[in-house]
Amino acid sequence: MQKGKASIEFSHPPIIIGHGNVVGKKEGDGPLGSMFEQIEEDPMLGASSWEEAESKLQQKAAESAIKNAGLKNKDIRYLLAGDLLGQLIATSFGLMDLEIPLFGLYGACSTMGEAMTLGAILVDGGYADRVVSLASSHFANAEKQFRFPLEYGNQRPFSATWTVTGSGAVVISKSGNGPKVTGITPGKIVDMGLKDSMNMGACMAPAAADTICQHLQDFERCPADYDRIITGDLGVVGKQILEEFLDSQGYDIRDRHMDCGIEIFDSSSQDTHAGGSGCGCSAVVLTSYVLPKLKSGEWKRVLFVPTGALLSTVSFNEGQSIPGIAHGLVIEA
What we know:
Blueprint (H helix, E strand, L loop, with lengths): L1 E2 L3 E3 L5 E10 H4 L9 E3 L9 H19 L9 E5 L6 H7 L6 E3 L6 H14 L5 E8 L1 H8 L15 E2 L2 E8 L6 E6 L14 H20 L8 E4 L3 H14 L8 E3 H4 L12 E2 L1 H18 L4 E5 L1 E3 L3 H5 L6 E3 L1 E5 L1
Parallel strand pairs: 3-4, 5-6, 5-7, 8-13, 11-12, 11-14
Antiparallel strand pairs: 1-2, 2-10, 3-9, 7-9, 10-17, 14-17, 15-16
């Protein structure tokens, strides 16, 4: 099952038999608005804090994915989930009532890729019949933790991205109907020494390029073997950097590259600058837009590459650089 230097090709590909998502109003007003399953008009979701609101996002997404798969909570062996908050409190408080064993994960905005990668390994290895992989983010939580309080009203540079309020979940099973996870390429940490927390796309693009190159080498494929190569949240700045990096390695992906952070918002009418970001960005675009394309047969094979910037408020305030990471999954109709 080991493929090349870093990849795995599954002998019995796990199947995505159900998925669900929930987003905030701004996301619902964007180009993919009609595709989202649930749109919350209230960013607080009736809760008393932003953190509690994000927990509700996770619970709603997980319950929706399980229901859409025609299952009950008791049918799920493990949860694999994460968020951007300290100690993963959106995940632990949001999924507690489901009473399913939990693996809490942190891969920054690449967490959905990490959760699906490990979930697919568990299922294909026979350690679980069915798992749920999910991730979430919330604009107000991210601003509060990583940037400035909303009340401050700070200016945002063009390179800044807008954290998506949303959560997406998938049910991965050893049997059933749906798109298959046929292979994975876990990414390694790549640090180019960048320190600008308002330019996450630039920080993450080198890691995305590294994972995509490694994947194509390991599977002995070219970009044309995929209907889409989908990055998580590089935005317009990171997209350009990624494509230039890959050009230097002999890979041109421009005609099939799609970035979830660009797709989720309308740059002409929504003030999001470089695009969307956050754990929830790739998760909700995958479950609302990408998987339906595969289920309908319009797309046959995609390379899904969620991207993450591995910083914390501590590391940033101590002057550390911002390393990036990206995990690749091959999903086929």
